[in-house]
Design goal:
With about 675 residues, this protein is an alpha+beta fold. It is built from 24 helices and 22 strands. The two termini are about 55 Å apart.
Length: about 675
């Protein structure tokens, strides 16, 4: 392939990050269940006035028949499919009850049953669709288009899904990388925190790997696609999202297991309700109506619908606020949390460096302010996070760096500039010092080593090729870390435990700042797993919050694992049960409180459904329950249960969860 000259364009201005995820809402009538339910409702509302006005049967009869067909064909087909698999579905029982009502002349009552039953199904479908809408809107990490280079030297803009293995792609400064691949030409620094968890941009050159969805820095890169779009990290996360709404919580699975036995018993009881009075001389029509009414009111539709709407609504609401909960099982488990283990780096800290130490060298003639001002002058035009940290530190101290000229930046090495006639360099100590053994270099190497041993990132400052000082950088504590710890303590009744691979001194400092008393430092991945299992052996249900590859085993071992999405590694994202997409730590106690609210609504729904079924069944057996009233009572309870679960879709539900957790 002929070489292509890399062309650079000015980096586009960074788009402001929205506070909430993009709102992608499925239109109600886009759902087939909603369209069929709407059609059945319209037909019923046209036929009912005609019947009540005394119009001939040929005017309203076909309309009722169409209402039966439009509202009932889907549940009837689903019920027949289940019957072929030797499973008794409540959908089929409802259709049989409706047809039975029509057979004895209660056409309007049967149509009403069909309409309300179809509406209940549409509500459940809408809750599921809105869940998928909310979480898909969180994962727009990969760009929609990419610049593909042509063999003849030209270029074309194509959708990223059309990129194939072997294609050559050009990424200009400030653009997001559209596919996983390997760099062929160019040099830049790439912010790949969304994939690898690296808190700082990583220098990229020929032969280095790049990932879809990561953000290119100030250089231009040309890379070859080496992984199909469907195999990228982003694609795998989206696949997990698609599977989330298909899972069922343990409560739901238990209900469905009981449902089969209950349905068989209900059919047997319905036959008895019909046959016994008939054998004792009751009228055929009256016995059949009583049996059909019994089948309707005893059906466990509301019980079946009690669990999933609250959990799905909670998943959708959490998704809108940056927490991707991968399944209904996870949403139910989050509310059971009674102990929390937190990682430090990338979890309690945000990965944004700040200057923590300023160490002028002996004989440099510089004070701390003088060294910082000199470094800030050289770094003033830089875009690296460490450069911004230096400039911010100088501004905080009220320093005015002198003007700089001849600025240049080498990705992965550092910057150089002419400041007051001196050539000033700021960069990695190992690259600047190399094997020099003069006194200044030896002192600088010792300071840098001490800082790095304490968990700091060190940067060397040189003037005219002579080391003059060392700067130390550390991650910035997340501003909501202390509030998050307090909220989790309030919810679980015990303070979280800090599990970290960092040294004990650094871990103790962070723990003291956020209010954690129990710290386990210097842990390897297997040690974190052992700590989690030790707590679970004591009967606790542990929530682990982490971000790195070393956290993945603990995330998998925990009752529930929650990963930081923006800084989380690929392995951590896949292993975790839920992902904080925008790294807002305060959402952790909020989503736990939301899960508890969802579980509370499940209990409410089960109570509502049980009361309605019990009252209506007793009424039908002891007295005479009119079929229309039985339909309204039964299907009304089903709709009520569904709407009660959908309450968690409201913004007020998230606000209440944050208030309860104190986050």
């Amino acid at each position: 392939m002929p070489s292509t000259t890399l062309t650079e364009r000015p980096a586009p201005p960074a788009a402001p990050r929205p506070d909430t995820a993009p709102r992608r809402r499925t239109r109600v009538l886009a759902l087939p269940e909603a369209r069929w339910a709407a059609a059945a409702t319209v037909l019923f509302l046209i036929a009912l006035p005609l019947q009540l006005a005394g119009a001939p049967a040929w005017a309203w009869g076909p309309l009722y028949a169409l209402a039966y067909a439009t509202g009932g064909w889907e549940p009837a087909w689903a019920g027949l499919q289940a019957l072929r698999e030797k499973t008794l579905d409540v959908d089929l029982l409802m259709i049989v009850a409706a047809l039975g009502a029509a057979a004895v002349g209660q056409v309007m009552d049967g149509a009403l049953l069909i309409v309300i039953f179809a509406t209940s199904g549409a509500l459940e479908a809408l809750a599921t669709a809105r869940t998928a809408d909310s979480v898909r809107g969180l994962l727009d990490l990969a760009p929609a288009t990419a610049t593909r280079l042509l063999p003849g030297g030209g270029e074309e803009t194509v959708p990223t899904e059309e990129l194939a293995v072997g294609d050559t792609v050009l990424v200009r400064p400030g653009e997001r990388i559209g596919a996983d691949g390997r760099v062929l030409d160019g040099a830049s620094e790439v912010d790949q925190a969304t994939i690898t968890g690296e808190p700082l941009p990583v220098a990229k050159g020929p032969g280095d790997e790049v990932f879809a969805g990561t953000l290119n820095g100030t250089g231009a890169l040309r890379f070859a696609v080496d992984r199909d779009a469907s195999d990228s990290v982003i694609a795998r996360i989206v696949q997990l999202v698609e599977e989330a709404s298909e899972t069922k919580a343990p409560t739901q699975l238990f209900i469905e297991k009981v449902e089969q036995r209950y349905s068989i018993g209900m059919v047997a009881a319905t036959l008895a309700v019909f046959a016994v009075p008939l054998a004792l001389g009751a009228a055929f029509t009256g016995s059949l109506l009583r049996a059909m009414t019994f089948m309707i009111v005893a059906s466990p539709c509301a019980v079946v619908l009690a669990t999933m709407p609250p959990l799905l609504s909670a998943i959708a609401n959490a998704g809108r606020h940056g927490v991707l909960v991968k399944s209904a099982v996870v949403m139910e488990r989050l509310g059971q949390t009674d102990a929390v283990d937190l990682d430090k780096t990338g979890t309690l800290t945000e990965g944004t460096p700040r200057v923590t130490e300023i160490r002028p060298l002996t004989g440099s003639g510089l004070t701390e302010d003088g060294l910082l001002a000199l470094a800030a002058a050289a770094e003033h035009a830089g875009e690296h996070p460490l450069a911004r940290a230096v400039v911010d530190a100088a501004r905080t101290r009220g320093l005015t760096p002198p003007p700089a000229e001849d600025f240049s930046s080498v990705p992965g090495a550092g910057v150089t500039a002419t400041v007051g006639g001196r050539v000033v360099a700021v960069g990695a100590p190992a690259r600047l010092i190399n094997s020099r053994t003069d006194a200044a270099s030896t002192e600088a190497a010792g300071l840098a080593a001490a800082l790095e041993e304490a968990g700091r990132t060190a940067a060397l400052v040189e003037a005219d090729g002579v080391p003059v000082g060392v700067l130390g950088f550390a991650d910035r504590l997340r501003p909501d870390a202390a509030a998050t710890v307090a909220g989790l303590t309030r919810l679980t009744g015990r303070a979280p435990v800090l599990l970290t691979g960092d040294n004990a001194r650094a871990a103790a400092r962070v723990a003291a700042e956020v209010g954690i008393t129990e710290v386990r430092a210097g842990l390897l991945p297997r040690d974190k797993v052992a700590a989690v299992r030790e707590q679970e052996a004591a009967g606790r249900r542990v929530l682990v919050v982490g971000d790195g590859v070393n956290d993945a085993p603990a995330l998998a071992a925990a009752h529930t694992g929650l990963a930081m999405g923006r800084a989380g590694s690929d392995l951590a994202l896949e292993t975790a049960d839920a992902v904080i997409v925008r790294d807002e730590l305060a959402t952790v106690p909020a989503v736990v409180a939301l899960s508890r609210r969802a579980r509370g609504l499940v209990v409410q729904n089960l109570v509502i459904a049980s009361v309605f079924i019990s009252v209506l069944v007793v009424w039908d057996l002891v007295a005479t329950l009119p079929l229309p009233l039985g339909v309204l009572g039964h299907e009304g309870s089903t709709v009520l249960v569904g709407l009660n679960g959908l309450r968690l879709l409201r913004e007020a539900a998230w606000t209440r969860a944050r208030t309860e957790s104190g986050s």
